[in-house]
Amino acid sequence: MKLSQELPRVNDILEKIAEASSLPLLWRGMTRYYARNGFGAVSYYWVKIGTNMPATLPLQHGFSKKEVALYCSFDFQRLDIVPRAALAAGVPIRWHEVWGNTELTVEERQFLEAMRQIDFTDGFSLPCYGPGNRNGVVGLGRIAPDADLSEERMTQLHFAAQAAHLRICGLFAEETGRERQLSAREKEILHWVARGKSNTVIADILQISPGTVDTYMRRIYEKLEVSDRTSAAVKGVGSGLIAA
Q1: Which residues are CB-neighbours of 156 under 8 A, at least 6 positions away?
Q2: Residue 203 gets which letter from DSSP?
Q3: Contact at 8 Å (CB) between 224 and 180?
Q4: Sign of the dihedral through C-alpha 206, 224, 83, 48
Q5: Domain 3-175 class?
Q6: Burial (CB count within 10 angstroms: exposed 0-12, middle 13-18, buried 19+), residue 219
Q7: Which of 181, 202, 194 is nearest to 46 (CA)?
Q8: 3-class SS letters over 9-47
Q9: What distance in Å separates the CA atoms of residue 67 and residue 74, rounded to the nearest whole number?
Q10: pLDDT per residue rounded down to tens, the chain (244 residues)
């Protein structure tokens, strides 16, 4: 049976998004929804205001550790042209079409070839728009052979992504009213985490020990009520604790 014949109504996911009380619950619902629609990998990140470039490490599910590590080893905020193209287009766009129809710089081509060498698969990017130009992009990869990629289905998936982004904006707006302020040093460290830097690299940049960075990271996790660095970065930008 085709996936499209057994999919839940789009209203079902919209209701779950509206009811989600935290980022982990919302993210879990999103990944399950897109998996049922034939996408085994999902990513999400905020973009820098005024640039349409990724502001954070992508919150991701289903991509391999090798893919994520290689992606983050590059200056992905600058070299990944797909998020900018998606936000400019305003509709879901396919990755290989963006790369194939754009005149690339030397660095962009090197980035693309490196990702291709580890068999990074094709997918779609869904632009999401929020209040105060706080925009985001949802990426869908690992496309199942029988996934429905029709314009109608992609529009429904786009609606779900936009609803989830607005819900995240709302959740983070609620967070700003709570006493969970980061210190200047914690913000500085979280800024570098959002740029994909490891604790060791951050220690070198700030000229402190890796152990000190670890201590700060534990404090950041506790204050932001998260358990991993990607969620901390996404929440830090979304809550306005660090600049997008």
Answers
A1: 10
A2: H
A3: yes
A4: negative
A5: alpha beta
A6: middle
A7: 194
A8: CHHHHHHHHHHCCCHHHHHHHHHHHHHHCCEEEEEEEEE
A9: 11
A10: 444 444 556 678 899 999 998 888 899 999 999 999 999 999 998 887 777 777 677 788 999 989 988 998 888 888 999 999 999 999 999 999 999 999 999 999 999 999 999 988 899 999 999 988 889 999 999 999 999 999 999 999 999 999 999 998 888 776 654 546 788 899 999 989 887 788 999 999 999 999 999 999 999 988 888 888 888 888 787 777 776 6
Collapse the DSSP code of 78 into the 3-class scheme (helix H, G, I; strand E, B; otherwise coil) and give the result: helix
- Planar angle of CA 155, 97, 145, nearest 5 degrees: 65
Give the DSSP letter of residue 102. Answer: S
Q: Hey, what CATH topology would domain 184-224 get?
A: Arc Repressor Mutant, subunit A (1.10.10)
Tell me where in the chain the CATH 1.10.10 domain(s) lie. 184-224
CB within 8 A of 155, min separation 6: which ones? 92
Give span(s): CATH 3.30.450.80, the chain. Answer: 3-175
| Cα–Cα dist 134/131, whole Å | 6
Backbone φ and ψ of 6, nearest 5°: -125, 25
In the chain, how long is the greatest CA-to-CA distance?
A: 58
